[in-house]
Records
---
Amino acid sequence: MDTQVLYNIFHQEAFGFNIAMYFYLTGLSAGSFILSTLAYGFGMNQYKPLGRVGVILATLLLVIAPFFLLIHIGMPLRAWHLFVYLNWSSPITWGSFLLILYPINCIIYGYFMFKEKMKPTRIFGLIGIPLAIAVHGYTGFILAFGKARALWNTALMPILFLASAIVSGIALMILVVILKDRFFSKEKRIDRDLIMNLGKLLAWMIVFDLFLVGSDLLVLLISHSDAQAAAYLILGGKFSVMFLIIENLLGKIIPFILLAVPKFRTLPTVIAASILVVVGIFFMRYVVVVAGEFIPLL
Amino acid sequence: MKERKKRLAMLIDLRKCIGCNACSLACKSENDVPLSVWRSWVKRVEKGSYPHSREFFLPILCNNCDNPICVTVCPVNAGIKRPDGIVTIDPHRCIGCRYCMASCPYGVRYINPERKIAEKCYWCHHRVDAGLDPACVDACPTEAMMFGDLNDPGSAIAKAVAENAVQVIKPESGTEPYVFYIDLDIDAVEASQSEEK
């Protein structure tokens, strides 16, 4: 039936840029941490140069990230309420403890790594993996529990967030390792084998991420009317350029081609692909958060 | 005989609603709601085309749900469900994280631009506790709104809900809303301003 809204109120934005940025930074942090444990937790020695860079990045990014939360909340001086008045059915309560435990563990893990004490490094690295997964996975639950919004309310959200966290973490690590080797190391020489190896890893993680995004989208298109509206919003509506072109074409498909086809895989293309991925994943966070709450509920 | 638990509820008879916005205005002044935000408002939808058309009025306010998602997700337990069913916010507890706003299927919560905390309609519990009806119910010139204890079989609202075909908004959300409507039109509920296709 033809309907026209003659009067309705405008609603305030609930989350928005700050929360998208927070999700992005925790994702980068979790991704970097997991890469740093490949050598120091699991003994894959070809990734050893990533250990120190990874733990420094993971710690720094996770120290910055909560500031976006403090900017976001209306009463930042009441942030201590989060640790006193607990509600275990709220993912934010889980997160307030994870946001304390994870950086502390990162610092201990990094301390032992720089002291070259391998056994405690390994232990804290292995403790850190579930923490890193949780500190980013819980942000997926924040959105998944927002049951009013069809784009958020999916059980796929935590794993989708983790996949994109690892993708963005690898890409950032490639860029930082290149910068470090080129300008801050003694030899000023870039470890090509390591970079190419990471590039291949990145390519296959992109495939996994694309698979998750695709299955999310397919189910949205078949599901109830709100879900279909959300799918059309990101496929053909206001967010289609961000979602299709920036996030998926420039941020995933082109980097995948650059990284997976041996002919294209050179140092400059790996750098270009990593930059595209790091930017693309930011748009992924932004689209999920902002498009999710874009359609008015009533 | 065991006394039944009180469960407050509201019934809005849309056949009687004339879209005068007296409820919105009474709410604004009773609760000192700042400019730019609303605790209750009347959505106005035109359906069909002349001469076969009708204007629908949909007064919207907090449903004070029995299974309120806003209370479930509040990280600091600022959301409180009273034994009589009213859902309130502790203004000294709320940190303004907006998670309740993000999760409410009815979009009835807002951040007070002056106090920076979440607020919403709580059926004027200060008036209800004093034995009065909420301000919107009192203000309605056509007596389209009815308020009372749904669990008391003798109350006017319990009788009216039993005798009429009633509907709630978005029953599928599983929040068990307690604002009932008579003559609710699904197109009026779902009509949305930003349908870009």
---
Amino acid sequence: MTTPNVDLTGKIPNNVGLSDDVKLRRALETWLPQYLEWWNDMGPSDFADKPVFLRTAVSVDPGGWAHYDYVKMPDYRWGIFLDPNAEAASIKCGDDAGAPAWTDVPGEHRNTLRRIIVTQADTEPASVEQQRMLGHIAPSLYDLRNLFQVNVEEGRHLWAMVYLLHKYFGRDGRDEADELLMRRSGDPDKPRILGAFNQPCDHWLSFFAFTMFTDRDGKYQLAALSESGFDPLARTTQFMLTEEAHHLFVGETGLDRIIKRSAELQRQDPNGDIRNQGGIDFDLIQRTINYWFTYSLDLFGGEISSNASTFFATGLKGRYREDQYTDHRAIEGSYRVPVVEAGKMVEQEVPLRNAMNEVLRDAYVSDCERALRKWNKTLEAAGSPTRLSLPSRRFHRHQGLYADHRFDPAGNPISQGEYEANLGRWLLVPEDNAYLLSIMKPCYEPGKFANWIAPPNKGIEGRPIEFEYVRLD
Amino acid sequence: MQDVAHVSAAHPVEFEVDASAYRHWNITYDGALARVAMNVDAAAPLREGYELKLNSYDLGVDIELADIVRRMRFEHPEVRTVVLTSGNDRVFCAGANIHMLGLSTHAWKVNFCKFTNETRCEIEDATESSKQVWVAACNGTTAGGGYELAMACKEIYLQDDGNSAVSLPEVPLLGVLPGTGGLTRLVDKRKVRRDRADVFSTTAEGIRGKKAVQWNLVDAIFPRSKFDEKVLERAKAVADAASKDLAPGTRKGVVLGKLAPEVGPSGRQYRHVSLTWDDTTRTASLTVAGPSAADVRTIEQGGEAMREAGSDLWSLRAWRELDDALLHLRVNHMKVGLVTVRTTGDLATIQAHDAALVKARDHWYAREVLLHMARVLRRFDNTSRSFFAFGDAGTAFAGCLLELALASDRFYMLEQDGVQVAMSELNEGGLPMHNTLTRLQTRLLGTPDQVEALVGKREPMDAEAADDAGLVTVRLDDIDWDDDTRIAIEERSSMSPDALTGMEQNLRFPGPETPDSKIYARLSAWQNWIFIRPNATGPAGALTLYGRPERPHFDWQRV
């Protein structure tokens, strides 16, 4: 294959010295055309020639990381940025806490680091694939724009991870970067690595739940990796977190707007029947929460995990906001994990390091609880008696201690029969999809919103809500 | 530390299992194809203190597998391809359970590894000698002992899903070696380039997809959606190829009946075998009774008559009993260091038995009986106990039973009228050691003339003649016998058990090396040494700390 002549430095905004890095340039020259091919095949369907009001990071300066303008998605400038605050970083956790951070990959941890990076990287293109058809049924131009913003930034996050693979992992890294473009979400033969990223995301209720719950796992994983002793990984993920915040905003406010609208429709209908008004009923919203929250819990890994212990001990992955802790070695502490023994829940004390996945999951769950409280306030303000909740973290799990047992949403052990009999009450079922797709028709008129969702409180970057966020003409 | 190895006379490990109710395996038959799916019950470990997660195995899981491999050959002679796969959706097999290893004494680990090795070798023996070809359908993660199990199969198919990898993570992750012949099979059997084998064996996550095929770590990869279909296709092709030139005879299986020994506080009495032990002197006595004239008559009628006689035939039953006794001794009587071996019966009857068996050996069943006999003798060769064979009054070391004397570390023979030994066809071939030689050739490696002189010799030999022929270690008359054998036993029992094990293993296998002999030799020499080193099992060793929050600390000195 001949290498296309690509003007990389012009196309790729960066602060990693790309123009002076022959090795990195050579790797990206081969990878970029493959990436664009993947974007064309698997990125948002049918909107390639439409100008979208997008935020692009063109530099890491305060004014540069959020540059807004109309861009056609294939022309989006996927950049490579490291957080600039890098004076004399140190290893933040584990046995070597306090020692100078690694600026290059330590051989001892090379394979482990590569696996961590590949697993994180794999989620980025996966979500783009999962969401590729959603543009056709967007509830507004505002939401359509947000979808595309999320998509291009997930694409950029893939770039950020591929940068690490290309720059620090030699030939293996290049091979892994290629494979990131070959796996496909939901493909039985080439699935994405993690379960939640192979689940279908067919409608906007799932999209919002995905960006609320699954992208939020991403936030916590990135935050834990931003504590890494491998400095390039820490700085890359720190910068990714700034963009990830918007994705979480899309999810959290998206669900909030649906909840708000459903409460309005409930009030409007003489029988309080939301579906009768073409809206999304609260049972369905609760089932969606149950579904995506639990799939996202799986992403944190096993409750008692040797890998988690190793990652922490070696300083490759810290806790959420490691600086809030005083003991960064965590060799002494323990953690009580509820385990199933002879059909009953009992607490098992495990060394803290082996429970690091659970520690991170705790931070995640309390963040999700915060969002639930907010939504319930929305319900309260709208005068609705309904309250939404998070299911137990034992419910509907496919990874970890609870995967081999059955629990109800409250976390009580139940039989397989009872579980199966209630699945339709607890989780998304195919009939839900049919209903949601029946009400989700595109709404492309500036300032208009589909019947099942309330408008946002304000527009993007000071623009009004009726701004033409995507030019479809 | 709790010791899962703790066994006692009250709770011995039993090697006979209920074949109608395997706990960890599902078996289905479809004509020439059998499917053996590993589906380990995590909550059913052999000893308390660990869970068998992710299709990891302990001795209990492997005892069932050994039973499956053996029964398949006798009970399902119609099966040509055995597809070894997993009933777990994500994991083919994660290898030996690390927590079990962490809780085990050194001796338990060694016994465990040895037994699992014997099972892997038996899988290869079934493939090569019985045309019952085992293939591995790795439908998920295939790690460590899981990959070694796959390597014991003739072909390996790996699911190509971007995730499933084969790996030997022992060195980088646990600071030990793959314990069931993985390294040897990698370079000697699969002929993986040694430099690539080096990379593979130090990459904890392993290798998947096309690269696994390119490096010959697996024979084929199939996509997930077509995996079962492609494996079936391949299994049928393997079965067709294995169906050519099959040994004749009605391919109707022989059910292996229960051995059900009479178990007492100091002995196990089988129909033909007796094992007694004395914990104070740390000795055991093993006696094997020869075949009856009726057994010989049955065999003389040929393979079909043997098959119809079933598993009660001496040639199978006695050797199954001996096998069980050896395993019992190994695992449940760790402190017994010396075993005296005796035989009873009639020399001429044994010789006639062997001659008839050799004559019938074209028949598949007779062949299986012989192959089984050979395997039991190899288990004997590999048992880390001192064996002294005693040919005294009433002895019957002839033919296949003479092999027990030749397999022993020493053979004491009484000079007395009527005390004789005798050769048969089976001393000249058919019961090879792991080094491919007969026990006679191995014993007389420096004097091939003596081997030549014995070939075809059927007249019984008294102690003097046997001594001249090179078969006897110590010849004693009846005045010296009692004292000298007593002293020999006491002297042997006083020496370091470790040194004796090492010495015996070094002395028992002169002559050529084979993959099997390398596997056992390297297991004894390297793996067992590494297992006991602080870098693996010391307080800061990698195996000790696996799964714990602390990281290992190595003594960097190369030894």
